[in-house]
Design goal:
By secondary structure, the protein is an all-alpha fold. The protein contains 24 helices and 5 strands. Strand 4 and strand 5 form a beta hairpin. Helix 8 packs parallel to helix 18. The longest helix has 33 residues. The two termini are 31 Å apart. The relative contact order is 0.13.
Length: 535
């Protein structure tokens, strides 16, 4: 069985990436050069895309012909005597058809609604067009590339300018601690700094970027724990939706640009930490309502977490059977090094996020107490809390943040919670702070997954080693144009992914199973046709 599993993984790797495990060890592709020959996986997706486009146009033409037929059926006899009646009938039919089309188009505007099959085909067609642009930019490399140049002055000026503009678009929200608008804003400004860190090769800000990634993992623990604790929804549908959201687009990108999954380590990390929270909450769910039950669960989670990531070699050994997912053949480090390194850096952030979610009602009650019937004692209590937080963060900053990259990485897993929790307390300590947010960062926070994936192929090139050049010789104009294209495509990808997910994974399990079976069949036929084309 082990031999069969190994053979199966090699076959899949060869089909999708056109290279075997042994080939990867001998000839690592760093994507710094253009490629002229498409892989089998790329041809398969291209065939599927063409098939979807053809079907979409067939359905669109059929619909328009039906509309024209409905209008043409109106009698034109006695036009002078029945002109008014004819116009009313014509307008009525047209409005009826337009009404149907309008209702179909409005389906996408309703959260969780299922798009029509024609809309699904349209989304697939548009998604294929975007991915084809990825293919041209970072696989064929039709656009020139240039080296990244870092200037601290330029980098800080752009950050200052962005925050200044963002401050002009303040909006109100409900004064709830860590409300959705606030967390989206938090993700948004961190994502800008994360992307620009890559764009400008701002290596001196490495420690801050590590902290931002830890914050994302903290939110994964906090958000998913809160959902499972409140909703008690452990359905396969919920897991499927999360898997689709986190991995659908990245899998397609892996095939389109011929990359390995672990190069997009953020997706791998969030998928794993989501599963860890799901496992903790779904096993013995009746314990979730009992304090002793949750205490045992937290202790067991911490023990397993420490055994896996704090004992050298254990992580690589445990996850080695999944090397076809978590492995990275970069020619420099062992196969499982990237996963053990990335997962180990933030292996306590998710745990702290769950602890914060569990104690959220207590913090909420505490703030409510301080903000009800306010007196001098309560004002002083807030000031003391703020002073304590500032002091803790200051001590952390002075003792941790100034360390070199390697020294910082060693203590990061055990100290990153200090500034994260400190930021949360300060951001929510007063109602006026938590009832307002910056709209620009809130908007960007909604598309962080898409901006993370897109940056590597249409904003940068060669796995973030180079910059794409649209306007040679004008770096700032090029930066502006590249940013506009990058954000528009990321925004489009977000909506396409959500709409495709709504169609592909409805709440009806039978329909979702049918869709999965059809998808497997279509991809099987596409792989077969691609294989025949390559012969």
């Amino acid at each position: 069985m082990m031999i069969m599993g190994s053979d199966f993984r090699q076959i899949i790797s060869k089909l999708l990436l056109n290279r075997t495990t042994s080939d990867l060890k001998k000839d690592y592709d760093d994507h710094t050069k253009s490629h002229s020959h498409p892989t089998l996986g790329q041809l398969s997706l291209f065939i599927t895309w063409i098939f979807a486009v053809i079907l979409y146009f067939i359905f669109t033409i059929r619909k328009r012909l039906k509309l024209q037929s409905a209008v043409a059926m109106i009698s034109t006899d006695d036009a002078e005597n029945k002109l008014t009646e004819t116009e009313m009938q014509c307008n009525g039919n047209i409005k009826q058809e337009n009404g149907k089309e309008s209702r179909e188009n409005k389906v996408l505007a309703v959260p969780g609604a299922t798009p029509t099959f024609q809309q699904f085909l349209g989304n697939i067609s548009l998604l294929g067009l975007v991915l084809f642009y990825f293919y041209l930019c970072d696989y064929v490399k039709i656009l020139p590339a240039t080296k990244k140049v870092y200037s601290r002055d330029v980098f800080l000026f752009l950050i200052f300018l962005l925050f200044l503009v963002a401050a002009c678009f303040v909006r109100k929200t409900k004064p709830i601690i860590l409300n959705r608008d606030q967390t989206e804003e938090w993700k948004g400004w961190m994502q800008v700094l994360f992307v620009w860190y890559h764009y400008y090769a701002a290596k001196e800000w490495y420690n801050w970027i590590r902290l931002y990634i830890a914050s994302y993992v903290w939110m994964t623990g906090f958000g998913n724990f809160s959902f499972f604790w409140v909703k008690q929804d452990f359905s396969i549908w919920r897991v499927g939706k999360m898997f689709f959201r986190l991995n659908f687009l990245v899998i397609l990108v892996c095939i389109v640009v011929n990359n390995e999954y672990m190069l997009y380590y953020i997706c791998a990390m969030h998928t794993y930490w989501f599963l860890s929270v799901y496992a903790m909450m779904s096993i013995l769910p009746s314990w979730n309502r009992k304090s002793y039950g949750m205490a045992i669960k937290f202790v067991l989670y911490a023990v397993f977490n420490a055994l896996i990531f704090d004992i050298p070699g254990v992580c690589q050994t445990i996850f080695r059977p999944f090397s076809f997912i978590f492995g990275l053949h970069d020619g420099r480090f062992p196969l499982m090094h990237e996963w053990s390194f990335r997962g180990g850096l933030d292996h306590w952030a998710c745990f702290v996020g769950m602890l914060c979610a569990y104690n959220y009602p207590h913090f909420e009650s505490f703030l409510k107490y301080l903000e009800t019937n306010i007196n001098n004692l309560k004002r002083v209590s807030k000031i003391v809390l703020i002073t304590f937080v500032f002091f803790s963060v200051f001590v952390w900053y002075q003792s941790v943040m100034h360390k070199d990259k390697f020294s910082y990485n060693r203590i990061h897993p055990y100290t990153s919670f200090i500034p994260i929790v400190g930021f949360i307390v300060l951001r929510n300590i007063y109602p006026i702070l938590r009832s307002h947010y910056l709209f620009i960062f809130n908007f960007l926070g909604k598309i962080t997954l898409e901006t993370y994936l897109s940056q590597l192929h249409i904003y940068l090139q060669s796995n973030a080693k180079q910059l794409i050049v649209y306007i040679p010789g004008y770096p700032f104009l090029n930066f502006s144009l590249a940013t506009i294209i990058y954000l528009v495509i990321s925004y489009l990808l977000f909506h396409l992914t959500v709409d495709i997910s709504s169609y592909f994974i409805p709440k009806n399990i039978k329909t979702a199973s049918r869709n999965c079976l059809i998808c497997v069949c279509v991809m099987g036929v596409s792989i077969f046709l691609a294989f025949m084309v390559r012969i």
